[in-house]
Write a structure and sequence with these properties.
225 residues, Jelly Rolls, 2 domains, 6-stranded antiparallel β-sheet, 5-stranded antiparallel β-sheet, 18 strands
Length: 225
């Protein structure tokens, strides 16, 4: 467990699931939606009797009430990042087919300070209560800003510093971050290459929606100009 109510994240619960080589595990149904992302390794996930291949940079949405079985079919550890999300208000109950998305298949979109992101899971793909995305952070420090949404972040690769007020915290691969709504911050890439981060935030929306301390939008797309 990385974040839950005990650590200040009231709605989002982030954890890392690890399966030894050749191992498997059946996970009990959850009352919340679950956004999974393969950090490393390969295997399969059986959701309500339907099998799906697991490979690095693959996202899987598991609907509330679904039982699933994860199997590690390789000789290396299989690691998944799991984020539990309350369903959006008014979301109909009942069975929903799992959604599987490959990161490389998703469209790259622009954000502030020459940053990019790719959305994996959102309401259109079945995740009613949140948005799951991968962000790409270049060697450039973004201005201090804040979001209106609640977010948990997992650093996939790269090194940097999280700036929050007078606190400057070094971060690297596998670092976990919780950003509460309206928390002013800046994530700086100080490594020798691109930084990649996996984010899940609620309510669902646009990852590029960020605000400067004076309340103006930090990034405005060409379409909105």
């Amino acid at each position: 467990m990385t974040f839950d109510r005990n650590s200040g994240s009231e709605a989002l619960e982030q954890r890392v699931l690890r399966f030894a080589p050749g191992g498997s595990g059946e996970l009990d149904p959850e009352e919340r939606e679950q956004a999974l992302f393969v950090l490393e390794g390969r295997g399969t996930v059986l959701v309500d009797g339907v099998s799906h291949e697991l490979a690095p940079d693959t996202a899987v949405l598991v609907a509330p009430g679904s039982r699933y079985l994860v199997e590690n079919t390789e000789s290396e550890e299989l690691a998944l990042l799991s984020v539990l999300v309350p369903s959006a208000a008014g979301q109909p109950s009942g069975e929903r087919a799992p959604t599987v998305r490959r990161l490389a298949d998703q469209e790259a979109r622009d954000a502030t300070s020459d940053r990019e992101f790719r959305i994996l899971l959102e309401p259109e793909s079945g995740l009613s209560g949140a948005t799951q995305f991968v962000g790409y952070i270049p060697m450039k420090r973004a201005p201090e800003h804040y979001h209106l949404y609640d977010e948990v972040i997992y650093v996939l690769e790269g090194q940097g510093v999280l700036h929050v007020g007078d606190d400057h915290t070094p971060i690297g691969a596998s670092s976990c971050i919780h950003l509460s709504p309206q928390l002013r911050h800046c994530l700086e890439n100080t490594g020798g290459g691109e930084m990649r981060v996996l984010g899940v935030f609620r309510p669902a929306g646009d990852p590029s929606e960020a605000y400067l301390p004076d309340g103006t939008r930090a990034y405005v797309s060409e379409e909105d100009r």
